[in-house]
């Protein structure tokens, strides 16, 4: 297997006259934890669905674990876990029954891990799915996605309804994997993301605005009070109150400014 766990090549999705994913290409190395960020409607969910193979692009291709996402083998599918933004759960079942039914589809599913995760997320196995709160439904969706210990996790705003304790437990569970796990996680909770990501992908209006390791961004991207003297080709975002630029594209420039937080970078790139 190549070192690339997930890739997109020229991905384009159109809905009516709108292009909602616009010619996106990226390669995600195995073991990376990618924070997918962007404003509401930027195209994150659609990109994640293309990567998962649940939406067919109008152009281009997504690949997971060296296979086309749209035609994943059962063996590859068993190595992937997904959480949709609005998880499709069986409301008429009990939590334990729901877990057991889904678990039958995965050879690597273990009841022990399932029970551990449920306890970690404070999920009552005896409850009815239809009576769960929004956060509890999200916890169930996470247990369903993680109990077979997948190598790849595609998570669309998985913590938006979780309380701070459950969010912390989720972040811990994410990194409890015995081997490096590849994760793409969209979230608007940038403080959490900043602590766990190896890479960040900024999406704006269907386009991939910036994709890099977080370490490289911290080392090379600078937030400066203005664009004076910064070569135009190095500027990632500029406006009246500041400028974000990549020092790698500004050789000889004095490197004014400081490294942005993820929150600041998000604001600067979306002004
Ligand atoms: N089936 C569809 N038909 C028409 N437009 C759609 C469809 N699905 C998504 N869109 C539009 O595509 C754009 C991107 O939607 P998407 O759900 O991918 O954004 P997002 O970045 O995940 O947003 P959010 O952060 O609010 O979840 C939005 O403008 C949305 O209205």
Automatic annotation (TrEMBL):
Domain ABC transporter residue range list: 6-230
PROSITE patterns: ABC_TRANSPORTER_2 (PS50893)
InterPro entries (UniProt xref): AAA+_ATPase (IPR003593), ABC_transporter-like_ATP-bd (IPR003439), P-loop_NTPase (IPR027417)
Pfam family, one: ABC_tran
Keyword match Phosphoprotein: no
Single GO molecular function: ATP binding
Alphabetically ordered keywords of this record: ATP-binding, Cell membrane, Membrane, Nucleotide-binding
Name by which UniProt lists this protein: ABC-2 type transport system ATP-binding protein
Organism per entry: Pseudoduganella namucuonensis
